[in-house]
Every structure is written in C-alpha cells, then in structure tokens.
Amino acid sequence: MPTDEVRIKSLYVGLYRTFIRFGVLIAAAWLFAVFSYYLSRTTGADWLARSGAVMSLVGAAVTFRLVHFYQGALATALKEGLVSLPREIELRLRPPKSYQLLSYLGYLTGVVGTGVGATGICCCGWSPEPVSPFSAGARPATRSPSGSGPRQTCPTPMN
Fold first, then answer.
1. pTM for this predicted structure
2. Which domain holds residue 138?
3. Confidence of residue 152 (pLDDT cuts 50, 70, 90)
4. Are residues 17 and 32 in the same domain?
5. 1-15, 22-36, 51-65, 139-153: least confident range
6. In the chain, fewer beta carbons within 10 Å around the N or the C end?
C-alpha cells in the first residue's frame, strides 16, 4: 500500500476515534439528564436544571471541538498533499455522515439542555415564581449547612 494511502487511513482513523469519543460524551450528557430527572423526582432536590446546564455545555463544546478536529484534519491532509483543493472543498461542503450526525446531535443536545435547564424547576414540581418570605407558601428560613451565611427561604413543593 502506498505511503499516501496509509497516511490518509491514519487521518480517518484518528478522526473517527474523535467522533466516537464525542458521541460517548453526548450520550453521557443525555444519561446524566435522565438520571438527574429520576433523582429530582425521588429526592425533591433540583438536579434537573443543573443537568440541563451540563447538557448545554456538552453540546456546545462537542460541536465546536468537532469542527476544530475536522477542519484540522482537512488542513493536515492539504498541507501534506494528501488531498487536492477541489477535493477539500467537496469535503467541506459534504462532510462524512458520521460528522453530520454528531454535529446535529451536538446542536440538539445544546438546545434540549437549554430547555431542560430553563424548565427543570417546573418539571420537578417546584414553583417557578419567586416566593416571598412573607407569603403563606414559604417554608421557614434556614441557615446554610455550615451554620453561617445568609438565611434562605425555600419554596414549598407543589402537590
């Protein structure tokens, strides 16, 4: 096998390895959201909104890093003379299906994570309206776990 073919295959292997890692990261973000939904429903703690933030960050990071690695691989192939300029333009306009799928999953993860983060409080049975410490629905004020710090008022869960 000529050396150029070996280098091209090596670039593709590295690129697909990166795709797999980013795919696992996106899957972990979705699984964390499902697990945090379960925790939010069983414990009453506010895990779901936090997992939405994690999903948004993972979606954005994966999408940007994916573009970086793909463009870097194309630049390397062009520098080393492994691909011609017309072929590089074609690869930029029509990337591999796995790249397209992972990009869309990254976008979807970011958008869904934003929605989950914004509505996570509502989904878990907590009131989205701020509760005044003087309202009838407020719990007694509590101190932080260390005993020092400002007093906080927690909303009552909706049934």
1. 0.66
2. 127-159
3. very low
4. yes
5. 139-153
6. C
